[in-house]
Amino acid sequence: MFISPAYAQDSLGGGLAMVTQIAPLLLIFAVFYFLLIRPQQKKQKEHKALLAALKRGDRVLTAGGIIGKVMVVKDGVDEVEVEIAPNVRVSILRQTIGDVLKPIGANDAGAKG
């Protein structure tokens, strides 16, 4: 008469309840991994490869929005010399380069889509 129904559960029901509590957490982690973490890692890997392949003559876009032409790339050094205007060269860090722009061809210069 004084026995609570909470103590009268069998051991199999307790294991199933634990699985049903953990399953939503695992599902949320899987969704975060495939929608947020994995694409970000892929993007970082591509950006690192882009910076490693940087060479003289490339047109680059910096994180500050400046477009320039790479003049000097030193191996083992984190700095790149970029010409942002005629006879104006600045030294920037590789990590601040956001993108390498495609060269503008002679035929593409006048065409506006």
Automatic annotation (TrEMBL):
- One cellular component (GO) term of this entry: plasma membrane
Keywords tagged on the record = Cell membrane, Membrane, Protein transport, Translocation, Transmembrane, Transmembrane helix, Transport
Compartments, as annotated in UniProt: Cell membrane
Its topology with respect to the membrane?
Answer: Single-pass membrane protein
UniProt key word Metal-binding: no
Listed under GO biological process in this entry are:
protein transport
Which parts of the chain span the membrane according to its record?
12-36
Its annotated function is as follows: The SecYEG-SecDF-YajC-YidC holo-translocon (HTL) protein secretase/insertase is a supercomplex required for protein secretion, insertion of proteins into membranes, and assembly of membrane protein complexes. While the SecYEG complex is essential for assembly of a number of proteins and complexes, the SecDF-YajC-YidC subcomplex facilitates these functions.
The UniProt entry's sequence similarity note says: Belongs to the YajC family.
Outline the subunit composition: Part of the SecDF-YidC-YajC translocase complex. The SecDF-YidC-YajC translocase forms a supercomplex with SecYEG, called the holo-translocon (HTL).
Q: What is this protein called?
A: Sec translocon accessory complex subunit YajC
